[in-house]
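pasting for the record
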Amino acid sequence: MNKMPFVLVSVLVILLSGCGAGKTDNPSPTILKGTTLPSNLSGLASKFTFPPQDGNGWSILTPSADSRLIYVSASGNDTTAQNYTPASAEVGADPYNPTGAILPYATIDVALAQARAGYPDYILLKRGDTWTRTAMINLKAGRSATERSVLGYYGNAAARPTILQKGVNFSWASNSAVIGIRFYASQRDPASPDFVGFAIVGNDAGFDGLIGYGGSVTGGLLIEDCWFDWFSGNVLQSPVTTYAALNDIIIRRNLITNNYSTAGHAQGLYTSRVSLWLEENIFDHNGWYKQGDTNFSDQAEGKATMFNHNTYFTETRDTVFRNNLFLRPSSIGTKFTSNTASGLNEVKAWDVLVDNNLYIEGEVGISLGGNDDQDNGPRWRNIHVTNNVMMHIGRTQPTLRTLGWGLDVQDWDGGEVKDNIFAHWGDATLSNNYAINADGNMNDVSYTGNIIYNIYSGGPLVHFRGGASHERVTFTGNDLWTSHTGQLVSYTLESNAGFGNNYFHSTRNAAQWFLLNNTYSSLDQYKTAAGDTTSVAGERIYVDPSRTIETYLTSLGRPTDMDSFVAALTAQSSRNWIPALGAAAINDYIRAGFVY
């Protein structure tokens, strides 16, 4: 009987109460659609203040009775402009589409001066208009996470309002939101007539939020439906333990693209000590402008380096990544670190879910280990990597390195790697490949239901390498298939009864399918060493395992090259959201090919 080895996207029903602001006619909160949270992460959603959502999943932000509505248009007049309230006759029933003859401001700074710190004031920019900035927009704090200060838009034009050259600063803006704005550093875009040259492009951030360094932000941030393009990065940071972690940060349905640096590291998004809900965003081509060279750290003209990634998160806690696209990074799609000082044994990252994301190209999919390689004990607790799809890792060799690495797992105290697909990468040149590398001090970690298919590797597809502590680690119900030269599993652990019910297939000499303590071994030898009595040598007959992003785009009648795909993604917005271009739809298509 055919079955699907993956659990398709189900519905997480989270009744979000207490959202909206100040008016008795606020719409009721809608359910938040998505994958079901693991039982030991079920409380995570309650740590975030989700506004109600409309039928298409977009947040509904409603001004309070005492909110100031501050409209800004490129054709406005700072002298004659007026502030409004939701009750103003000129505003009408919808503050985002005023029906009367409003008098907008012309300049953003004058409008900002009208907003009050600690109030749910709204600065609304006219859709389709453009402003050029010489400094970041410094937002002010709102009243609470349910009564945010807002930088948003008004009007019916298809295009977002555009801010050129500078981004937005949240460092003094707890309980604030930025909705539906394009931030475009055209002076850093080599294809733009505004380009100033690599020698002077600078390192401007698209958005920034720091506690410490003079900042006072503590959390309550919402960033949705924005596009941050051609900056050097985006940063949310609580830098040292003197300050509390930043909490209740929601970043959803944004475009974060083309970040690079000529004089430092560049990430699409960097966070430190942050609790984050990252959902349905599109990260593409971050950390680099052009391919690197044999000096893997050369940053000239925005070259790709091993230090630059789509996302880079340190000491993450209480965090959900779900349904995001991570495409074409300089190096890693999603990098996490949890680094302890020498000689310490300290967990610094916990309660993390990385679920149903799509990873394409770059040279590493997910790193959940850290930069430090110290035998001090676990540094992570309760980590879940589930339902993700990784394809074509390493294909374009951004840094020129010949590697394609899937998932790094190191020093976990509890967690799971479940129902992920690792498929279709590597060749005779790109042969330094694996799907999963599990290393260090690992306790109570399960690997279940993963499919590893068609990865060309000169070494094992899965590595198990133990530290001083490696207990209660299970590897069950996984399928490993290769027609290439590498081994299937490298196993250097002590005898472990938690391995079984796996399917193994390789065209390699059957006496060399495994590495046991660096010695070629057969399936039977591996089973004896691992205490595995139920795994078998067998080839699953899948419905269509050849499915890729290219075959998916063909099924939609779209061009199949990555540039065309990304061009379609950058047209995504609240006015033109195509679910078929999202990670959830693409991953479901890929999974359906692995039915057997």
